[in-house]
Amino acid sequence: MGLIDDKVDLETASRVSASCFCRRRLPVVMVKTNFPIMFIVAITGGIASGKSTVSRVFQRNGIPVVDADEIAREIVKPGKRCWHKIRKEFGDAILLPTREINRAALGRTVFENKELRGRLNMITHPTIHRTIIFHVIKHLLSGKQWIVLDLPLLFETGILMDLIYKIICVTCDPETQLQRLIARNELSEEDARLRVNSQMPLEKKCEKSNFVIDNSGSIEDTEEAALKICNMLTESNQHWRNRLTFLGFVFAILFFIYYLNKIFNFLPEINIASRWK
């Protein structure tokens, strides 16, 4: 079980997870901005690598988790706008007798054809991203210190990268990943490999992440590593820096408006004393 942070040395990393294999990753994540006031942590990784196991650790410790896969399942329920678009694009052959989308049939169709996969993504991804932003704003307004986004395709889409403060990649050895996927989704080995190969290789995702959790071992080891990262982030004062930056930004705007008004006098004067006469 391994986890690392690109800003800690090997000695520090070994203290974070004493029983695990750790090595420094290149700090290649380019975080351009942080979301005002709170900060956002992304969990990513390959299909069936164990992201949900890590997400549950954060949830149990009071950290809100926004799951892109759950949103994706919700927006394609019968009658939803994306459901109608998918039906129009791929036909009734991908529907079950219940009118729900046959995810296995649709998966076989799109994972064998990159163009069709792109069409499906064009239908679902905008709605997924809008829903994620809605949840982010909701948690921001509720005063959360930080939240987690579970984003399997974070690097593949790149859409939400500018919001992310830290990235956690959950990985495991390829054979373990394949067998977990076959068992979980009841797929043939060929179909499972198509799904794995449709995503960015796990090694590349690890190189682009701040923390790496190797989920090849036991669930207990994975949960222990995730809990240590959770505690490290909770103890961070990044959210206070974000708050000060945000307040400074607001103050600068107000001062700029005040200064312009002194020159051009475009704001109406309010005589508070006269209102009480």
Explain what this protein looks like in three dimensions:
Pfam families: CoaE (PF01121). One of its GO terms (cellular component) is cytoplasm. The chain crosses the membrane at residues 33-50, 244-261. The chain has 277 residues and is an alpha/beta fold. It contains twelve helices and five strands. The protein folds into two domains: 10-236, P-loop containing nucleotide triphosphate hydrolases (Rossmann fold), CATH 3.40.50.300; 238-277. It is 53% helix and 9% strand. It has a five-stranded parallel beta sheet with strand order 2-3-1-4-5, sandwiched between helices. It starts with 9 loop residues before the first helix and ends in a 13-residue tail after the last helix. Residues 1-36 have low confidence and may be disordered.
The first-level CATH class of the largest domain is given as Alpha Beta
Can you say what the CATH homologous superfamily of the largest domain is?
A: P-loop containing nucleotide triphosphate hydrolases
Structural class label: alpha/beta
The mean pLDDT is 82
What is the N-to-C succession of helices and strands? HEHEHHHHEHEHHHEHH
CATH architecture annotation name of the largest domain: 3-Layer(aba) Sandwich
Number-wise, the strands total 5
Strand content: 5-15%
Poorly predicted spans:
1-36
User: How much helix, percentage-wise, in residues?
Assistant: 40-55%
For the biggest β-sheet, the strand order reads: 2-3-1-4-5
CATH topology of the largest domain: Rossmann fold
Distance between the termini: 73 Å
Oligomer designation = single chain
- If helices are DSSP runs of H or I spanning 4 or more residues, what is the number of helices? 12
Overall spatial form: globular
User: Largest sheet at a glance?
Assistant: 5 strands, parallel
